[in-house]
Q: What sequence folds into this?
């Protein structure tokens, strides 16, 4: 499985924990979601909602001039599991090259070993977030190559 | 019923058919130390309890604790007894459930406990949201309750639970069906978007003859239930349900319809209300079941048979 280095480390960290501590680790990641920059705070219209998550959850991915990806998440504190997923993806993918983000397998989350401790149904939330994030990155790359080829 | 824990005498609750099924936040705050009472949090978000919960509350998770891990069904008698015992709940305990999202999962857990005949189960009116908004205490300390000797009780799936085949018969007999999902889900207009993972069904729409009353209509914005009079206006007035009706409620996976099941059977006292927990995820994936795809309940199948 081709995972960017830091995301692979996060996956290894979870997989190496006994199941009862994985939930605690997820809670820890839920506290590590970076705050929104001022231009996005309170501007959910500039972000994309993930309707698969039952609580309001928004994301925005930006591809910089150097082709690296910056991800912003807006998730309420009442949704710590979703925030935990956001924390894992921020930690694992922020600053990575766009091509590497696009190459993350959609099912990577199964390697976290969380299916037994949070249920497979809830794990779908992280796949939905990743799918939307990758779509945003793909759209921006395409728009850029269209501009460059003109 | 002669409960070990006194009832909440609140005036609002006394107007309901079964006031013994609800407690208010202020009552609960005054009874947290009652040795016969166990508070249980059941949430959509499996980590929410761990961020802070009502002091002394145990966590009961729908996915992990109440569902069988292999079959799509609830745990059996052994599984339920093991769960109750491990949480320090005895058969005589009063359980007060509360949770996030307007008590959806708390109502679900209460419904499952009722399948196992646990007698004294109550909901916290307003759930977690109201407790938190009132600035009441939360703790991350997990209580260490001694295990109990909970007896083996066979689940009774006949009274308050409906299965797909029974729903089919119910449709054919023109029985009352309440679809508690949003109008978009009901009409079938909410469709899957391309490239996005979906957990739902292959077909959209609703069960023919079902009336659409979204679950939220029974709740105030602060998470509490609407007063008895307002609920009667919706379900008896608008919808025309009467006491003798055989009623089945459903949603997508059975959690929102537990909320409505609670309203109809416990708050309004309809004697025959079942929750179809297979709900749309089962129906919309089933081969050769009738589906109505419109904003209307659809033709009465009895008229079709006659005409």
A:
């Amino acid at each position: 499985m081709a995972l960017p280095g830091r995301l692979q480390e996060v996956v290894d960290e979870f997989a190496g924990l006994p199941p009862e501590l994985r939930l605690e680790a997820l809670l820890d990641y839920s506290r590590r979601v970076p705050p929104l920059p001022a231009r996005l705070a309170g501007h959910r219209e500039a972000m994309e909602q993930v309707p698969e998550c039952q609580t309001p959850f928004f994301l925005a991915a930006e591809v910089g001039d150097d082709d690296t990806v910056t991800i912003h998440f807006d998730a309420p504190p009442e949704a710590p599991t979703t925030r935990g997923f956001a924390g894992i993806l921020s930690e694992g993918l922020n600053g990575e090259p766009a091509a590497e983000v696009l190459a993350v397998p959609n099912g990577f989350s199964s390697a976290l070993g969380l299916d037994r401790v949070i249920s497979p149904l809830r794990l779908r939330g992280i796949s939905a977030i990743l799918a939307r994030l990758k779509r945003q990155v793909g759209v921006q790359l395409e728009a850029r190559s269209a501009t460059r080829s003109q | 019923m002669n409960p070990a824990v006194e009832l909440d005498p609140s005036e609002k609750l006394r107007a309901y058919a079964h006031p013994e099924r609800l407690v208010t936040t202020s009552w609960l705050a005054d009874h947290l130390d009652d040795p016969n009472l166990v508070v249980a949090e059941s949430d959509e978000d499996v980590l929410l309890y761990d961020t802070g919960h009502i002091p002394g509350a145990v966590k009961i998770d729908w996915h992990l604790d109440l569902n069988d891990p292999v079959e799509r069904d609830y745990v059996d008698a052994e599984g339920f007894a093991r769960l109750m015992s491990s949480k320090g709940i005895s058969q005589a305990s009063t359980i007060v459930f509360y949770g996030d999202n307007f008590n959806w999962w708390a109502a679900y857990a209460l419904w499952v406990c009722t399948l196992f005949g646990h007698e004294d189960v109550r909901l916290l009116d307003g759930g977690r949201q109201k407790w938190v908004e009132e600035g009441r205490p939360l703790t991350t300390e997990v209580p260490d309750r001694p295990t109990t000797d909970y007896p083996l009780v066979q689940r009774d799936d006949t009274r308050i639970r409906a299965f797909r085949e029974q729903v089919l018969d119910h449709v054919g007999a023109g029985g009352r069906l309440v679809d508690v999902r949003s109008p978009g889900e009901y009409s079938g207009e909410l469709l899957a978007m391309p490239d996005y993972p979906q957990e739902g069904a292959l077909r959209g729409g609703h069960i023919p003859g079902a009336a659409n009353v979204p679950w939220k209509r029974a709740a105030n914005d602060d998470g509490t239930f609407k007063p008895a009079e307002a609920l009667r206006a919706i379900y008896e007035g608008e919808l025309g349900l009467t006491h003798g009706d055989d009623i089945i409620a459903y949603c997508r996976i059975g959690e929102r319809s537990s909320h409505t099941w609670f309203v109809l059977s416990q708050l309004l006292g309809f004697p025959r209300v079942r929750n179809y927990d297979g709900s749309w995820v089962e129906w919309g994936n089933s081969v050769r079941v009738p589906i109505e795809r419109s904003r209307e309940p659809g033709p009465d199948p009895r008229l079709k048979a006659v005409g």
The radius of gyration of chain A is 15 Å. The beta strands of chain A are 48-49, 58-63, 69-74.
